[in-house]
């Protein structure tokens, strides 16, 4: 299933290179993400850029004219390009398809090159991860030069064929070696492989077709993200040389530490200090949770230090499904460090009622929780 590249640009299959270029530039002027932030427009801009990449390359255009698709991978139903979830940028597709990392040169590579992806990071609080948020961030990337709309030329001037390489984009040199004469080719130093030069470059971009600019964009962060995840914004990365279509922008989440809760996947953990007497008699504690507000935790009578009370479904929402993890309260029993005489007397009276309670060295078999070392392990595993 070949894509209709001619249709995307609205030109006939007989269109000249000039007509294709003109059609692309006209569409790019209305659809470029810097002009038109609308998501549908961005998708279309990527499509027309792809179409232009293909039709402006004689080799690829030939494949299209033969009914093929130079960008389809193995010809299997047009998978992979233009849709969501494609991370590598156009350059990867070209390299995968044409099998070249620049070693096998195929004439001039053209001045218009796809732009690079870019990456930036943004800090989110645990609350923002839990509820989702729209973040306004400043991006510094190359954008299309508005003075020449990417052509790199000044006014109506036109690029000319490079004199050094006569448009081939590469120069050959003959070297003698013990094998005899060896012909090597390298990218043309004058046009850097483009095959053409711009005698009268655009005053704003110096012929590059792009300029650096800062802009503010709004990033919609979905519910349930966590540190290290990346959000992809199609065609918001660097505009390529010659105004080539923009790469993608990735926003990586950095999750800030929370005052109370420690996140473990979709579960949340917190530590609750319980006075000794409350642990013995039982009590309730209110935890101010991130999503559900005040939530009561029951401390049953006879609670031992280190016990964990869990509340199901009060943890973080899972990305996409929104299914909630659990909240785990780790109970720390606090023994009063100072007693006044009245309190000491009360505890002595209590001790008289519990005359069987005595400090003792325990046998390994009688330890609960799997023994001392197991609990030490738990303590060090960050729980
Ligand atoms: Zn050249
Ligand atoms: Zn310019």
TrEMBL record:
Each CXXCXGXG motif repeat, start to end: 145-152, 162-169, 188-195, 202-209
Positions that bind Zn(2+) 2: 162, 165, 188, 191
GO CC, alphabetical: cytoplasm
Subcellular location: Cytoplasm
A Pfam family annotated for this UniProt entry: DnaJ_C
SMART domains, per database record: DnaJ
Family: Belongs to the DnaJ family.
Function: Participates actively in the response to hyperosmotic and heat shock by preventing the aggregation of stress-denatured proteins and by disaggregating proteins, also in an autonomous, DnaK-independent fashion. Unfolded proteins bind initially to DnaJ; upon interaction with the DnaJ-bound protein, DnaK hydrolyzes its bound ATP, resulting in the formation of a stable complex. GrpE releases ADP from DnaK; ATP binding to DnaK triggers the release of the substrate protein, thus completing the reaction cycle.
Record protein name field: Chaperone protein DnaJ
Gene (UniProt): dnaJ
